[in-house]
Model the fold of this input.
Amino acid sequence: MSKDVLRCTTTGMIDFRDIAPDGQALRAIAALYCTCFNAPDKGENWTEESALAYFRDRIAEESIFGVAEDEGGALIGVCCGGPYERSFIARDLGLECGRHFYISLVAVDERMRGRGLGHAMVKALGERAAAEGYEGVIVRCRAENAPMLRVLDRAGFEEISRYTAELGGVTCERVVLRKGF
Done:
């Protein structure tokens, strides 16, 4: 996928950027990830370093990153994804899905939730994938993540699999969903 920059803000458009494996933008993304996904009560304790390692792996898988910023330039949302066949999830699940794009992350700053930003990011990645000739999009999330499952349902995704797996030191049920084009 091409990695051009589109100038965007919270109007629903997403700014797709090249992200350097050790750059300041990656550190901001890792900090947002930790804020969104740390759940000590569930044993999930992401640190900046563990989040940075996760994102370096996504960069190695040829992921693209979409960021949303408020009018002041503060990061309020991030999404990323890349070719399904290069993703860790393809190796873990062993599902044959043809030429699909895998959305590996959608994270929205807590203050901005409920405003459609997650839906806008899923839509933007799907549109990019379709424009690049992918047959569809694969995404997974925790089975207990009802808000994200609603976003995905609204975006036209359908469940294709469930499994139990460990990530970030936590074992939980995950849902795999697909949307074709």
Summary: The CA atoms of residues 88 and 125 lie 18 Å apart. Confidence is low (pLDDT under 50) at residues 1-12. The chain has one domain: 15-180. The two ends are 17 Å apart (CA to CA).
